[in-house]
Amino acid sequence: MAEFALRCQWVVWLVILAQVHASSSSSDL
Predict the structure, then answer these.
(1) How far is residue 19's CA from residue 27's CA, in Å, rounded to a whole number?
(2) Of 5, 29, 7, 25, whose CA–CA distance to 17 is shortest?
(3) The model's pTM
(4) pLDDT per residue over 1-29, tens digit each?
C-alpha cells in the first residue's frame, strides 16, 4: 500500500513538473 501511495505521489509530481516545464517553455518560445 505504501509503495502504491509513493508511486501516486511520483506521478503527481511528474505531471506538475511537466506542466510547469510546458508553461515556461511555451512562454520562452
Answers:
(1) 12
(2) 25
(3) 0.58
(4) 899 999 999 999 999 999 998 888 776 65
Q: What is the DSSP string of 1-29?
A: -HHHHHHHHHHHHHHHHHHHHHHHHHHH-
Distance CA 19, CA 1 (A): 27
Measured between alpha carbons, how far is residue 23 from residues 4, 8, 13, 14, 18 in Å? 29, 23, 15, 14, 9
Q: Which three cell numbers stand for residue 20?
A: 510547469
Angle among Cα 20, 1, 7 to the nearest 5 degrees reads: 20
